[in-house]
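agent: user wants the full assembly modeled, not chains individually. Plan: 1) parse entity lines 2) check alphabet per entity 3) run joint structure prediction 4) return tokens. Steps 1-2 passed, three entities, 1048 residues total. Proceeding.
--- entities ---
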Amino acid sequence: MTAPTKKLKVATTSLAGCFGCHMSFLDIDERLFTLLEHIEFDRSPLTDIKTTSPDCDIGLIEGGLCNAENVHVLREFRAHCKILIAVGACAINGGLPAQRNHLPLTTILEEVYHTSPGLANGMIPNDPELPLPLDKVHPIHEVVKVDYFMPGCPPSADTIWKVLTDLLAGREPSLQHGLIHYD
Amino acid sequence: MTINEMHAEAVAGVVDRVVARHRRDPSNMVQILREIQEACDWISPEAIDRLQATLGVPRTKIEGVAGFYAFFYTAPRGQYRVLFSDNITDRMLGSKALIDRLCNNLWVERGKVSEDGLVSVGQTACTGMCDQGPAMLVNNLAIAGLTAERIDQIAELIRGKVPLAEWPAEFFQVEDNIRRADILLDSDLKPGDALRAARARAPSDGLHASNMRSWREGLPTGLGGPAATLDEIKRANLRGRGGAGFTTGLKWEACRNAPLKSGQQRIVVCNADEGEPGTFKDRVLLTRFADLVFEGMTVAAYAVGATKGFIYLRGEYRYLLDQLNAVLARRRAEKLLGENILGIPGADFDIEIHLGAGAYVCGEESALIESLEGKRGTPRNRPPFPVTNGYLDQPTIVNNVETFAAAAMIALNGGDWYAGIGTKASAGTKILSVSGDCARPGIYEYPFGVSVRQVLEDCGATDTQAVQVSGPSGVCVAENEFDRIIGFEDIPTAGAFTVFNKTRDMFQVARNYVHFFQHESCGFCTPCRVGTSLLRNLMDKLHHGAGSPYDFAEIERLNQLLQSMSHCGLGHTACNPVLDTIAKFRPYYDKRMMQQDFTPAFDLDRALGAARQMTGRDDAAAHLATEHGGKA
Amino acid sequence: MSQTFTLDGKTIPFADGQTIIQAAADAGVFIPHLCYHPEFKPHGSCKLCTVKVNGRHTASCTMRAAAGMVVESDTEEINAERRALTQMLFVEGNHFCPSCEKSGNCQLQATAYHLGMMSPHYDHFFPNRAVDASHPEVLLDFNRCILCSLCVRASRDVDGKNVFALSGRGIQTHLIVNAKSGQLGDTDFTLADKAAHVCPVGVILKKRQGFAVPIGERKYDQAPISETVGEGQ
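--- prediction returned ---
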């Protein structure tokens, strides 16, 4: 990797995810320093920047789409990032949150807010500040075009490192045995 | 005794009678299940209990078979089970409004059973009445020529719980609509004449007690009647009329030469599972020319040395069963079937009718054989082929209804006569089932070589933009191709000829066909099972205005995959209607390519609907605008 | 074994009656597969083992080897088609690997790794399928069923029980068990049955056994599935 004249802008976010993929990203440890010679972080929980710059090079999306806000964020990423990467099982197939998909949303809300033991006169939150849940949790490629995928729960630090360094070097990312994992 | 016990007892009585009639033979499972359902309205767990006990087969096998066929119900579907034919021609004739009318009339939701359990209204694939649609099946009996008035009458009969047997007979009237006849539809063959001619062709053929082997085993080529008959079939250059066009003589010869293991016999099967949407000529042949077909089967039995025959009749033609059985009984009485046919000792052959139960895939010959054996209609792995390992592993020929009719005429008049009709590459005639936008839909028999244009002229089609020849698995012919001819050398066909005038949206035609394949995929192999559903979803996506160039590329990819990886012809051809219409009627697709960029297949705003309803919110943030998602 | 065919240019000897996949396995060449198992009659339904024989696609588990055949298997074109099939299987069911006890020992997953499947590509069907926990020793999670019918064949042909069968049609095809209740607990199935040990995915699972081997150290974590060629599975 030769040092680029201009650092690539990388934005990251977690939609319906657990931030585990972000933790795994941090697990690349001291290689982060090498990485930072080539990239700068834009919107990301690591920087606490709240909106993406319109000229991001790479967007890393953790998590699937569970609610309206997830959709807005994903659309913003797609619009602002040249390369969009789905990171981890939830972004790729909905993951754990999608295991509610066989239940009607009405049944779920009913159970959670009305009929669960211990709830008295519960009501479903309806504050306009709160994003409404979608009827099903979707992986992100069902809503926007996704350029690359890093499977895993989470993808290992080595997987993340390999994909990013391949891209920085202008190569098609390619993962050998041991780096492709769905678990 | 509780009501449940009484029910179980009554069901057991039915099951026992049906099982006894079928000689406790599990290879009659499909017939057994059909008859149980006819008596009990559905196949209840109690019926399966009894069946398991009396037939001695595991429950899994019974439920596996019952679950495969669309016309078998393992949950109650009402005393009256209405299924509207859902071919594109039914739709063009206004079937959708009629379905809604009946549903409203009966207070029943489409696809569901009415609350009182009296009636269900659903849809099924083409029922073979395209020349007289819209059509429906009520408890598997065909009613064609539906009108709003007729629908209201039917609703009243159902509400009044009038038994089907007491419904007006004219409701069940099915027209033949023979518009052009040639050697088959003009045939006045006297029963037995073709057989006698076949035998006379080689007087010393050995149809005698002194040489019974000739019927059962055949004789070396060039010797005797069976071989001479086979020679005539070959000389006639007869090719299968079911669509694939395999040379009949070669198939028969392979069967005849296949070794028989001890206790085995050769089998002749008539494929009357006319399921290709838009095809209905076999219905007319079996209605008006049953003797010709049975005679052809007997000729085939004579030629290959078979002793057992089956007609696999599609379940939609259940109404033909009694009259066909009557013809078989008469032929037995006339010594044209049964033992010692034509009084010749050892000349034994009989025919049994098996009904299908709503599975298009059973038109594929190895799936058909599985179904005849009482199994799920899954196409077999081949080789081995049916000619050596067919019904119950015995040498079997499977031919189309029309092929047998032609074979009878060849036996009567000789192969040279037949080869002189049609074109050099395609001998004989072809019966076309003409429907759609034309003044005179019906049955047209032409010598091979007739042009599409000629047929259109004859049936009174005007302003035609396309003809779907040979159904969804066939080819879509556009106006600039109307001089192409019907024949193996140009447009081969199983017989469907569906006409579309310029007011028709060819995208919707293709979409209807794609839904058909999705519904009829047997589910055995991964590419077809999942691929036909993916393809249906893509076509629906285009229909809903969410299509982009991305989806076009996906369709192409799926087509490639289905063609190379599928187990049988259903999967191989499932993309044909889409590819043809994309190639020839692109503007209908362009009109639907509403999006330049990738767009989700589902409506995001609608996906928030349940949450809006539960929270009572309708503010701006409670909605999602349609927005595309990146360059496709 | 004097007869041979070529597989991706390599000469493969075969005995009379052997299928392509059998002869290849004997020669140490891996052809991806899911519904094939050396101990059972081939089924030919998953189509993962499709190869090109003299230019024509065919399932190598059902096609008998013949002298002089030219077979292609490990090509970019065929592997792309196989990858699409695994993607179809993933979206057809509910395959959430992180929460599946079979993860790491799953043939579907390992085959997808082998084929470089980075995403399921298609839109998910998210079907609604039940879990059957009625049996004292064994759990059935139909969400992961790929309809390979190995349990059907094992139960019928080895155990002589017919505990399993496929019912339904098309995309509705599903596994059923031999009980009026539809519950495995009401069948004569036991953990000793062959059928309890042939599921290539995580449908038929022994109860009360979880994470005995940590994720990351399981069978296909140790070595890719292509290196298990010739094993029983």
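agent: reporting back. The beta strands of chain C are 3-7, 10-14, 50-53, 56-59, 70-72, 131-132, 138-141, 164-167, 174-177, 204-206. Chain C touches chain A through 30 residues (CB under 8 Å).
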